[in-house]
Amino acid sequence: MSLLIVGSVALDTIETPAGRADRALGGSASYAALASRLFAPTAILGVVGEDFPLEYVALLHGAGIDTAGLETVPGGKTFHWAGRYHPNMNARDTLLTEINVLGTHHPAVPEPLRGSDFLFLANTSPELQLQTLSEMRRPRLVLADTMNLWIETQREAVWRLIAQTDVMLINESEAQMLCDTASLVRAGRLMLEGGAKRVIIKKGEHGCLMLTRETLFTAPAFPLETVCDPTGAGDSFAGAYLGFLAQAGSLEEPAHRAAIAAATALASYNCEEFGVGRLARLTREEVTARAEALREMTRFDGVGPA
Amino acid sequence: MSLLIVGSVALDTIETPAGRADRALGGSASYAALASRLFAPTAILGVVGEDFPLEYVALLHGAGIDTAGLETVPGGKTFHWAGRYHPNMNARDTLLTEINVLGTHHPAVPEPLRGSDFLFLANTSPELQLQTLSEMRRPRLVLADTMNLWIETQREAVWRLIAQTDVMLINESEAQMLCDTASLVRAGRLMLEGGAKRVIIKKGEHGCLMLTRETLFTAPAFPLETVCDPTGAGDSFAGAYLGFLAQAGSLEEPAHRAAIAAATALASYNCEEFGVGRLARLTREEVTARAEALREMTRFDGVGPA
Fold first, then answer.
1. How confident is the model at residue B217 (pLDDT cuts 50, 70, 90)?
2. Is B218–A218 a contact, with Cβ atoms under 8 angstroms apart?
């Protein structure tokens, strides 16, 4: 099963209490692809500028990712994001957003990638996400992410995206904003009514909630003693989830839950080092081991009378 | 196995987006005892004033709770707390705290209760908690709670309490404050180093984390679509946890995990109605059913290659 990730490939300047990185490889597609490639053949679609270091392309390519869809805009500059995390790592301030080529170029899906089986529409304008989706032949599963900016400025288009999405992935605060409720269960159910077949609400260090019309699954994050850099946690989570599903041979509830466990484990590794460093050398065996540890940490027996 | 709960019996005036209650039965001991009595014979130790309604005593007594240790101070007034919850129910403002008899009377443990097997030292000054503990013969398990006020004003005494506690129960933000770290895993380990045999960090709607030197368990809250009144959720959680352990016939890790599941289920019922109303008519079968539902919501298979 083939997997296509459409998202940003970026340069990230990050400050956390643990240190600093300058113009490191970043972007939703980079994180998601470095995660999914552990499970399934992965291609990315994105644009960068002429300033994008060749070594970053080599890193992605060396990790087994199909980078043919990574377009370089002549004379253009790569999307650059700079942010500083708060001491508790749960919030961050954006210091700089240089949209650059992301604001002017939206790549069409090349013919060889239109038949991809699994599709991740990482965060961008919902209109662009819908346009990409319209260029695909019938993917088996579409996962979409969004952000507060689009909920504030293009809410109606976000709902149109949800209506065409198999799995809607959204942050806790964004779900509350979109659905105008503090209750995540209610927000999830409203998105299901809006047409998503499945909703995953990400709660950062508190894990996630996954809902369908028939099921509800709640998973903790993997408890970490030290968080170095949470950048890309959500996107690597998404990539691992989709990659795991692509190789699972099933799209039933147990496969989705195992995919969440794998994604939770993988995202926790991502937080333990700056940037994409840990993902780039992560193995599937390490993910399996941590997911198994998570299973041990969440297991309990029935409470009925003995 | 007998269970003693030492804490406040109060009058609560509560406003939430869902409604309002005036001078309702409240207090840590009331909530904890109404929870634990579903599992084990429960006695409370506390003080009220002459204004404490007889119907509230009748409610506790009618629920099977031993109220012989509930002392009425002649001419005194009952502890009265008034608070208003924020729209998302995750935070509240205290509008009024009339300490009244709680500030002047600290009951000694009556002789018949000194041999209780399980003890819950609900939140009060750590010096008073330690005094109560010194009056007990060797209880099999001591559970203690605290709050930010004591961490700010009597931090050293909080650590002395922790050193003598089997299970330390503490809120997320209080654990972070006490241990000066954003990491809950690190905070838990510091409290274990401080002498607690087990630490439970409560995360409200995000569930809890339970640590020993050898184990780590993470449990979600039971996902609710509607929260009516979270008052007493932590204390009813504590009571159910201790009550479940008292009847479990084991103090090994699986018993503690099942106790957390029962406590999680019970606390979720508590949040669905104002005050103690739901707890007063809750059945053990309802708790078991919801704990089983929680188990179904958290279960997942291994992620290793098939």
1. very high
2. no
Kindly provide the b/e burial profile for residues A23-38, where b requires at least 16 CB atoms within 10 angstroms of the residue's own CB: bbbbbbbbbbbbbbbb
- Which residues 13-72 of A have a C-beta within 8 angstroms of B? none
Please name which of B218, B220, B221, B262 lies closest in space to residue B240, comparing C-alpha atoms: B262
ipTM of the complex: 0.90
Query: In B, which residues are within 8 Å of A301 by CB distance?
Result: 254, 257-258
DSSP string, chain B: --EEEE---EEEEEEETTEEEEEEEE-HHHHHHHHHTTTS-EEEEEEEETTS-HHHHHHHHHTT-EEEEEEEETT----EEEEEE-TTSS-EEEEEEE-GGGGT--PPPPGGGTT-SEEEE-SS-HHHHHHHHHHS---SEEEEE--HHHHHH-HHHHHHHHHT-SEEEEEHHHHHHHHT-S-HHHHHHHHHHTT-SEEEEE-GGG-EEEE-SS-EEEEPPPP-S--S--TTHHHHHHHHHHHHHHHHS--SHHHHHHHHHHHHHHHHHHTTSSTTHHHHT--HHHHHHHHHHHHHHH-----S--
The residue type at A60:
L
| pTM score, whole prediction | 0.94
Task: Give the start-to-end residue ranges of the domains of chain A.
Answer: 3-298
- The tens digit of pLDDT for each residue in A135-152 reads 999 999 999 999 999 999
Partner residue opposite A303 with nearest CB, options B223, B258, B303: B258
Q: Which of B139, B177, B172, B173 is nearest to B158 (CA)?
A: B177
Residue A225 has, within 13 A of its CA and on its CB side, a CA count of 7
Architecture of domain A3-298: 3-Layer(aba) Sandwich (3.40)
Predicted local distance difference test score (pLDDT) of residue B304: 82
Looking up tokens 């506790």 gives B60
**B15-61 tens-digit pLDDT:** 988 889 999 999 999 999 999 999 999 999 999 999 999 999 999 99
Burial class (CB in 10 A: 0-12, 13-18, 19+), B185: middle
Q: Are strands B216-219 and B208-211 parallel, antiparallel or unpaired?
A: antiparallel
Say if the Cβ atoms of B303 and A297 lie within 8 Å. Answer: no
Residues of A in contact with B303 (CB under 8 A): 244, 258-259, 261-262, 265, 287-288, 291-292
Which of A88, A268, A300, A301 is the best substitution to test chain B (most B C-beta atoms within 10 A)?
A: A300
Q: A61-79: per-residue pLDDT in tens? A: 999 999 999 999 999 999 9
* Residues in chain B, overall count: 306
Residue A23, SS3 per DSSP:
strand
Q: What is the average pLDDT across A245-267?
A: 97
A291:B302 CB<8 A: yes
> Cβ of B182 under 8 Å from any chain A Cβ?
yes
User: Please, are residues A78 and A71 in contact by the beta-carbon 8 Å criterion?
Assistant: no
A234 Cβ contact partners less than 8 Å away, ≥ 6 residues apart: A145, A169, A171, A202, A267
